[in-house]
Amino acid sequence: MNFSFEQGPIRPPSEATSLLLRLTRNCPWNKCAFCATYKGTTFSRRSVKEIKDDIDTIAEMCRFIKEASVNKGFMGAINMDVMNYIHGLGNYQLLNMAAWLYYGGKTVFFQDANSLLMKTDEIVEILRYLKERLPTVDRVTTYARSTTLMRKSPEELKAMKEAGLTRVHVGLESGSDEVLRFIKKGITAEQHIEAGKKVVEAGLSLSEYVILGMGGKKLWEVHALETAKVLSSINPDYIRFRSLTVSRGTTLSEMVERGEFFPETEEEIVIGERLLIENLEGIQSTVVSDHSLNLLEEVNGKLPEEKEKMLAVIDRFLTLPPEERNNFVLGKRWGQYRIQSDMQDAARHAKVAEALKTIEQEGSFEETIAYLRNQNV
Predict the structure, then answer these.
(1) 249: alpha, beta or left, given left = phi > 0 and alpha = psi -120 to 50?
(2) Is the pLDDT of residue 307 over 80?
(3) How far apart are CA 146 and CA 223, in angstroms?
(4) What is the pTM of this model?
């Protein structure tokens, strides 16, 4: 079987079990100082026909997988026996489709970085065709830049919602105009607010992504306070934290080498995270730390009722003795710990403590942590 369709490179962690459908290729902006994902690529729109052809291929793949289930006596159900059979066929995309069906076949993510740049009537046509060919789909999400959302009228956003678009993921990164200029985001805080409010008012679910540490040592405080101000103005459904990692080959890495940007330590990033959460006011957003690069993955909660719970998680880390803070940081970046309570495992704690002693004797703690973080990007 030669089943295949086009897919892009990334999707949000929250879309791990979603079908990835590519509407556009790469990123139309592609200038953000911290991002290496689309470097060396050119943005392009795919035609509606190309996308519909991919949907047809996906529908045929689903038919094939369900037929295999019937032939094996499972009445179309997708279980591990069916998954193992599909795995044996050696088609990676077919296996991904089987996994999508295994998880219910309900969610779809439109790729790549800014699919809403397509004409609204084209997106509506694709959404309707998707629902027609894959009727189990009940959630469709996409990335979008705030500049693109600003150009969509309220009627256009509502039309896409009525056709089946469910959620928009936006890279806010920071609410500070100074930080946004520095990282070459190509937008202002006020424009982020305008775009975010339009999405919320259209009834679409909105996820705003914040990069912890994006202000560096110089702008950490304004980054935290102004980001909290912007988010409090938008009231998105989700606030998703990502921790800054300076990736090789980015403009930001060159700024670091030239002494124009000084990354924060893990502890400094957490202090900024606390200040940001503390200043989120008057909103009902859900804060999510759904990425392994976040030091404190357990900082999750619904505002306003769970703000104190989230702050308590942060304070638990900040009030640890210095040696224990370093133990957790090293253990987390080394993959020995996931959350703070993992430190209670005596064997793991001793293993990390032994490694930490050697690293500190060599005076290379921060360098080691930076190296380990880059290995997990």
Answers:
(1) left
(2) yes
(3) 18
(4) 0.94
